[in-house]
Amino acid sequence: MMDPQLLDLARGIISLFLIVDPLGNIPIFIGLTRELGEEDRWRAFKTAVITGFSLLLVFSVAGRWVLELFNITLESFKVAGGALLLVLAFQLLTKNELEEPGSPEESGVVPLGIPLLAGPGAITTTIVSLETIGTPLTIVSVIVVAALTWIILKFINPIYGFLGRTGSLIISKIMAMLIAAIAVQYILEGITEYLGG
Predict the structure, then answer these.
(1) Domain of 43: which CATH number?
(2) 3, 133, 140, 187: which sits with the fewest CB atoms below 10 Å from its CB?
(3) In this predicted model, what pLDDT tens digit does every residue of 108-122 receive, in sequence order?
(4) Which range of residues forms the domain containing residue 144?
């Protein structure tokens, strides 16, 4: 039987990794930095990871305070967050191709770090994890996903060469389906807990 804490940690890591989706977003990273040299591109990727995951770490620590400040219950946040993730999943599923937004000069903090890595979905997932598995495990989840994203971006060229645009798109669609399932689970848990309370 698996340790409950390890199970919670695995759940936190997997759900956040699916939302951040560094593999499915590889073509976007490539597109946004296509005019940069290798050194500048890696500098932009490092900035993106540090910026995006620093924001998630802030929410993994202060998320409870944010909920209390606005008098939001966990049940309400789960339903709202689940609905938001569901919309995100449908957008990913119905998109025919991955977007490659504008100029590479804008890479780094925005839009690579925010909102590509630390968007509304990732923030929602972090706060829900904070309330369901606790602060320490949420922080570890954020750090592990940041490390995995760092590794993926470090080896982005060979990974993209292996997957190609089509492979990345397929991964993105599969992850979107899993995100939809997580979103429905959040909504059901929120409603059940509200009715039970």
Answers:
(1) 1.20.1250
(2) 3
(3) 787 788 878 987 789
(4) 4-196
